[in-house]
TrEMBL record:
<protein>
    <submittedName>
        <fullName>DUF952 domain-containing protein</fullName>
    </submittedName>
</protein>
<dbReference type="InterPro" id="IPR009297">
    <property type="entry name" value="DUF952"/>
</dbReference>
<dbReference type="Pfam" id="PF06108">
    <property type="entry name" value="DUF952"/>
</dbReference>
C-alpha cells in the first residue's frame, strides 16, 4: 500500500500527544478499537464526512512502514481499504504536521 498515511486531529489532541510521546486517538478511535487513518486520496472525503466546520485541524503525515504490523488496511466507506492502526501512534513515525481546514 502507500508509504504515507494521514491522521486528521485537533490541535489540542496533538498537543497532548506531543507531551505524551504518542498519539492514542480520539473518542471515535477509542470506540472502534483502532486509530482511523487515511490514504492521501481519502483525506478530502474524511474531512468532509467527519470534520465539517472544524477550524482547529492538523494533518499528520505518518510513515506507514514505521508502523509495522500494527497497521492494517481494511474495508470501510464504500468498500475502500482504509489504514487502521491497532495501537498508539508513535511520534517517531510522524514525518510532518500541517494545518488543514475542512475546505481543503
Amino acid at each position: 500500500m502507500e508509504n504515507t498515511v494521514f491522521k486528521i486531529c485537533g490541535r489540542e489532541e496533538w498537543a497532548a500527544a506531543s507531551v505524551a510521546g504518542e498519539y492514542l486517538g480520539n473518542a471515535d478511535d477509542a470506540r472502534d478499537g483502532f486509530i482511523h487513518l487515511s490514504a492521501a486520496d481519502q483525506v478530502a472525503g474524511t474531512l468532509e464526512k467527519h470534520y465539517a466546520g472544524r477550524t482547529d485541524l492538523l494533518l499528520v503525515a505518518v510513515d506507514a512502514e514505521a508502523l509495522g504490523t500494527a497497521l492494517k488496511w481494511e474495508p470501510s466507506r464504500g468498500g475502500a481499504l482504509f489504514p487502521h492502526l491497532y495501537g498508539p501512534l508513535p511520534l517517531a513515525s510522524v514525518t510532518g504536521v500541517t494545518e488543514i481546514g475542512a475546505d481543503q
